[in-house]
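Quick one:
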Amino acid sequence: MNKQFLLSISILTLMVTTFVWCNQRVLTASDRQRVEKPELYVQLYSVREEGKKDFQSPIQSVVGIRYTGVESADYKDGKFYDLTPGEFKDKIESVGMKVLSSHAGRSLNRENPASTDWVSIWKWRDTAIAAHKAAGTEYLITASMPRITSLKHLKVYCDYYNEIGRKCKEQGIRFGYHNHAFEYVEFDGVTWYDYMIENTDPDLVLYQMDVYWTVKGGKRPVEYFKKYPGRFEILHIKDEKELGESGMVGFDAILKSRAIAGTKHLVVEIEKYYFPPFKVSSLDMITLLIFYLPSIEHVSDSTHSYVMG
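Output:
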């Protein structure tokens, strides 16, 4: 861990301990409202445990800390969190937020993508696009794909993504792909991720780069921004656990370079926590991380959106 993170954790731990000792609550709504913070969206996967018990509760909680919208992580068969698109949209908007984006995808035939049941695939995709339009989402993102084994198969996926992008564009939605580390392997001397970017239409397919997984894949995000300027409309700002925890992701350089990347929105993704064993909820961790974000230079520009996810 780097020194900045250790100092941040020490301060946050002291704050948490004090709040729990005094109130048995980490942060009250009034406490949250007093915190100066940039505009933020929240990826609902970050509050998945709370959401299992009561979908509305974590939504209301992030309003208390002045998030401005959400990114969905649970779309299935035309519904979001078992709600119709209209119901989901209404619940989010009823507390003064909006649905920015959503992760939803359907993979092709694993053995041979070209032999996919395309009728079934496009039926699923058309339903998904219609549902996302009805829910008011601006972006529909494919979160991952199977670990394929050849450029031939990868080209099928690129054509597939171009077509999804075309269909989304017709409905006023932007389509994109979110990476992990495995996209940085090579086939015949060609990096998988590079091939995808070069074989998809910039007007139809954006890339939601996950900066943590890019670093884990042995690459540098800023180098990709320079190599493929304008392609990274959304970034996932993420670390192994809490932001700054590993010391391996150069957030300052990444955020400083967002103009050349073409970045309009930042999605801060938190999959794992050090804090829950100490009885701090993921909602409180999301709140506490607001103290970390403004400490990084170039994050306070209010013309950009910040997404917790």
